[in-house]
Amino acid sequence: MRTYFSQKKKLALSSYIISIAALCCGAPVLPVNAAAQSADNDPADYAWQADAINYALKMRAFFDVNIGQQPTPPVIPQFELDFDPSGLIGNFQPDGPTQTSQNAFFQNLGTNGRTCFTCHQPQTGWTVSAASVQSRFFASFGADPIFRLVDGATCPTADVSTISAKLTAYSLLLNKGLIRIGLPVPANAEFSVSSVKDPYGCNTNPVTGLTSPTSGIVSVYRRPLPSTNLGFLSTIMWDGREPSLSSQATDATLIHAQANSAPSATQLSQIVNFESGVFTAQIFDNNAGWLNGYGATGGPVPLPQQLSTFYIGINDPLGLNPKGIPFTSLVFNTYPAWENLLGGGQLNAGQASVARGEQVFNNTSINITGVNGLNDVLLEPVIHGFCGTCHDTPNVGNHSVKAPLNIGIANAGQNSPPDLDISALPVFTLQCNSGPLAGQTFVVTDIGRALISGNCADIGKVKGPILRGLAGRAPYFHNGSAANLTDVVNFYNDRFNIGLTSQQKQDLVAFLNTL
How many distinct structural domains can be found in the chain? Predict the structure, then answer.
């Protein structure tokens, strides 16, 4: 990794360093949420809000036939176990149980029956899975509050007059767990939208979408991010558009719940405190058994202690750790006790696979190429890295600094990502008209961070999410293009020509399922 951090490359990083200096120069240990709330003071992260909120209000013109409240348990216990496809997922609140009637996270603050709990539930790692959405559809005949025209449907104009029509209208939510996000084209955008292939007509209808190549609303479809383990965040939302968790809660209430007014300060405090105090991880695996046996440290209980040592830039691969501690690829140390037992006959086959998978994650060399946000910033055509080069936060796996990247998941056309299904998504052709990339054309299914910054260099860029609780929340990536973790591993293997064997792929999937 020495070449990666060579002194001559530091000059190429000057603009990048300036943009994230606030992340690296404060107190090294931050309380829960302080990291996330101070991570980005970019004015662009406020510019989109008024237009997006006004747009959501205008979409009330498309009448929702569904009514009803969100089914909610009376108590979220201090420690909760829920079944998921791979075993049991654990949720832990160190400060004790939560009475849902006394916390705004679970209260109807809007006009369409939704609460925060509508899209953030414990059995799916405090987000939703496609399977859970399907179950809710058939249990409620499509009336559950998650099925609302404003963003649950492919477009607010969709026909929902019959069950069959609802299955079509909510197809992306049902099949991929995607919510529609309507964002304005930035006033300062370096790009124009020269064409859109939209099977739902939402982007091409001037009432719901673009009014010109440089104005109006762009609809992209994204997975709701988990509302757990939030103290480890360096960036809020896939595109980093929210400057704080309070801002995110306000905008979600006004947009997704279609509220008439913003939450009060007390309500915001309740929401932020609850979601900041929940820790989630897989605790039992159908093949490996209990994930805290034989000296392993799986499950959510160790995570609060992990948070107590976390700070922005804690394992920054760019060499900008505020304490001067060098980057290590050994990001996860959940199962070293199992790794030490490999070959000794004490582990079952599932445990041995998990132990080997952690080694694959930590130790496998990857030649990183063509990643906007890394190779172009560092002026390095090839970066000799690891999984942890991007998934660097210790025992959590997200970015420890704000680092939106385009690894190709948003690409379409000739550069469509291998092993992923983007067939149901709109495709945008963007022409860069100004800035350093003027004259270039991009074809993407999601404009990414560029919808906030307006910069062509940010087209297709999104953050890497926290990896804890993966087993309960399929499908994967921001656009739901990977149906399962095998698809995820195959994508990385093919995208970067890693050369994993079948056994290594199987082991890596086994490990990811235990996070």
Answer: 1
Q: What angle do CA 248, 251, 255 make, to 5 degrees?
A: 140
Q: What is the DSSP secondary-structure string of 312-369?
A: TTTT-TTS--TT-PPP-S----SSHHHHHHTTTT-S-HHHHHHHHHHHHHHH--EEE-
Nearest to 404 by CA among 428, 366, 445, 372: 372
In our burial notation (b when 16+ CB lie closer than 10 A, e otherwise), range 486-508 reads ebbbbbbbebbebebeeebbbbb
pLDDT per residue as tens digits for the range 272-296:
999 999 999 999 999 999 999 999 9
- How far apart, in Å, are the Cα atoms of 179 and each of 93, 143, 149, 152? 27, 16, 10, 5
293-334 pLDDT tens trace: 999 999 999 999 999 999 999 999 988 899 999 999 999 999
Q: What is the pTM of this model?
A: 0.91
**pLDDT tens for each residue of 433-490:** 999 999 999 999 999 999 999 999 999 999 999 999 999 999 999 999 999 999 999 9
Burial status of residue 14 (CB atoms within 10 A of its CB: 0-12, 13-18, 19 or more): exposed
Which of 380, 29, 105 has its CA nearest to residue 268? 105
Chain-centre distance for alpha carbon 43:
22
The Cα 259–Cα 240 span in angstroms is 23
In this structure, are residues 48 and 241 in contact, taking their beta carbons and an 8 Å threshold? yes
CA distances, 148 to each of 60, 137, 254 (Å) = 11, 12, 14
Q: Could you give the CA distance from residue 358 to residue 512 in angstroms, rounded to a whole number?
A: 8
pLDDT of residue 41: 64
- Count of positions (residues) in the chain: 515
The answer on pLDDT for 191 being more than 90 is yes
Where residue 116 falls (left for φ over 0; alpha for ψ -120 to 50; beta otherwise) is: alpha
Q: What is the pLDDT of residues 413-423, one digit of tens each?
A: 999 999 999 99
144 touches 137 (CB < 8 A): yes
Cα–Cα dist 40/45, whole Å: 8
Whether 129 contacts 473, CB under 8 Å: yes
Is 19 strand, coil or helix?
Answer: helix
What range does the domain containing 351 cover?
A: 3-513
